[in-house]
Amino acid sequence: MRSMSVLLLAILGVPAAAPGQDADLANKLRETYAGAAEKLVALQDATGAWKMGPEGKQTLSPSSTALIVASLAEAPEPIRAKHRDAAAKGLAFILSKKNADGSFGEGPTGAFLKTYTTALCLVALSSVERSDAVADAIRGAQAYLKNNQLKEGPHEGGLGYGDAPKDGNPGRGDLSVTGFAAEGLKASGLPQDDGFWKLVVKFVRKCQNNSEINKDPEFLAELKAKNMAVGEDGGLYYAPVASDKASPAGTKKIAGKDVIQSYGAMTYDGIKTYIYAGLKKDSPEVKSAMDWVRKNWSLDQHPGFAYEEVKRNHLRGIYYYYLLMARALDVYGENPVETFDGRKHDWPKEMASQFVKLVRESRMWQNENPAWYENDPVITTSYVLLTCDLLFKYVH
Hints:
Helices cover 48% and strands 5% of the residues. The chain is mainly α.
């Protein structure tokens, strides 16, 4: 029977695992996870919080705490039981930071990065038992995020980092915060027929390099005025802005016009957000983005960022990329993923192997490139543990 299975896998182009190989990888991943969880719990402050920021300037952070609480709440047993008290203390800290408007924020008054922080806290709240206090906090966070979705202007449907403007300014959204908000609202059970989802699709389309999808006349006119154009590779970028600031990967010249560069994290963010919003796998939006994935598959660098030996630009935000990659491919529901070079990738096993390989002697993960706080091992390790929580569905 095994020989027939091996033959079938060979025909399909999928490497067959040796007997016990899957179990060995699962055990290594679990051991690596357990060590990292121990290290994170040892860094927890007496308040129940985890800190964020450079040495000497660290602050107690609801968003960092939310990432870790969410990961520990979904950890495999017996790791989850072992750290239940730490997760409970973290949850208590999060609840203590709820603002009157239902939001959560960074800083002494909770007024900084409110939308982003609220979205992460909503994911954490959705991962724990729904006591009355948790249920009340979830309702408040949902209402805050829905209220802060931009209802008009060029970024309609998106969300930015803080409160929506109240001074007539149309406001600016980006796909990263919008994706976090969609994650929190989906995890907390926002109904599929809620108006949030229809608007969010409208925004995400404006972040996609496909002229059949990205048709917003105001944005197209903005691009044309600056000798820019929508690309055709199907990938996604950070924000619908006619500038090289629209993507941290910059722009590239195509047929004499500047095109906003697609990159991995936002392409996966777009895929999962489209699907959360109710689009199907065969929708033009999702199919086009998955075509980009099939052309740009990589776990060794962040696709869209050029290789750079000294500054390690190709590693920029790669742990954030891993998290979004796993979430998108999980909800997309394809394993292995077949890329355009004919290879089939068992992505959960590939990612598990990558994490086992990249863990440091400190038992944590840290990016060589400092962008997006990934030189902070607390942030980076929390991304990895959240990703592993999902990988354990497949690697066992």
